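Shipment paperwork, digital attachment
Item: protein structure file
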Amino acid sequence: MAPSAAQEEKSPQGALFDSVAQVENPVLELKRVTPLKMSLPYIAQRGIDEAVAKLYLKEVHFINTNTGKNYFAAGIKNVSGGYEIRNPYFKSSIGKKDLSFVPGEEGRGVVSVFEGIMDFLTYLTEEKRLRMPEDVIILNSISFLQRAKSYLQARRYTRILTFFDNDRTGELATEDFLSSFPSGVVIPQNQRYSGFVDYNGKIDLS
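Attachment content:
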């Protein structure tokens, strides 16, 4: 039997965050992880630059243990060693669900916080860049808002750029961040995709 994502070697990023038990999806079992290939048409549909996608996403092959059927999806590793996966039909996780963390090239006390991986990749696509100078946190679920906030407060970032959705949940998340940090530290960026629920909606071709 192939090891589950939870049985894989834990991501070194996990050491950056406090240990928090996250729910595992027992139905989906990781088979293998390969370079992004078969998911590229889906990524193109979402308007994401191919070079950007290949740098941050992997092709995650897995089996539904209830049905015995094999599937694949584009995925990014999270700080607990699990994978957050997406394909045209669903989004889920394999192994423990958690935040994803992408260290910046400069480490200059600035961090960008995105709700989802597609929002992060949309930003890079729009900006025509492959990497970020600042650190990046991808929530993967709005339920990890407090977890992300605790990490940011511990690290004492001087500037926090938020890319939350333009819906009520996103508004509440933005208000929460603004009230939790000193004035001027949190700088909401949702005006960049005004008129769309999320950042990817601005370039999504599907």
